[in-house]
Amino acid sequence: xxxxxxxxxxxxxxxxxxxxxxxxxxxxxxxYSGDFAPNDIGVYLETMNPAGGIFLRMNAAKALSLxxxxxxxxxxxxxxxxxxRAARMLNFRSNITELALKAQLNxxxxxxxxxxxxxxxxxGGGAIFRFNPEANFDGNWIELQPxxxxxxxAPGYDSPYSLTSFALLAGGGIKFIFKERFTIGxxxxxxxxxxxxxxxxxxxPVNYLDVLENNGSLAAQLSNPGITxxxxxxxDYTRGGEFDDWYYMxxxxxxxxxxxxxxxxxxxxGCPTF
Length: 274
Description:
Layout lengths: L1 H15 L3 E14 L7 H6 L2 E13 L2 E15 L12 E16 L3 E2 L4 E16 L2 E4 L2 E4 L20 E15 L3 E12 L11 E3 H8 L1 H7 L12 E3 L7 E14 L15
Antiparallel strand pairs: 1-2, 1-13, 2-3, 3-4, 4-6, 5-6, 6-9, 7-8, 9-10, 10-13, 11-12
């Protein structure tokens, strides 16, 4: 909550001194990399889901724009579909709700401010996001975090993980500005998270009987569906890897400028207009 209040306070402070503001919408796709999607661009394409949001952008100077956005996305994965681990028999989906504060470094402005400008830019910032992984079990979607599929809450295991976390943003895009009022943009951004539980799967060592006895049969089944005989099968396992998860959002935006205009046609820092 304190991060959210800090972001909102900063946005209000910036708005009060703004020379130029834009209000916009965007739509596109979201995907992720983690224990269901290895480092393979082809897998990223298979795990794409719809995404979109609304944003308020302040053009502080010719070289710098600041943007506060509320974004919605979805991520998902399934063993044997988005990876080659069909024997693990796990799957998940999760909605992502993100409040992001970005800084856009406008590399150069090409074109005529009275007509059309083309502005490539680099993007960076931070975000607070909410997620809630679910698994498809016998045709029903089950929330995973309350179950403790990796023994969370049981003696000797960690506490349940938080469904709210923080991410660092990096990416870039290009803006097409028409007569200082209308902007169409293309952007792709990566989110480096500080949680390994976007998909409910981590590198934590787990014992099946610990999950079964402390968190119940449903938690144990969803923890490791491959175990059907506790007398003969290995009951100690690790479900995933050790690295934190990432998610990605990108798409097309449209915004309308009020105030000084989206091109900041006045004094400011940055590259000259060509």
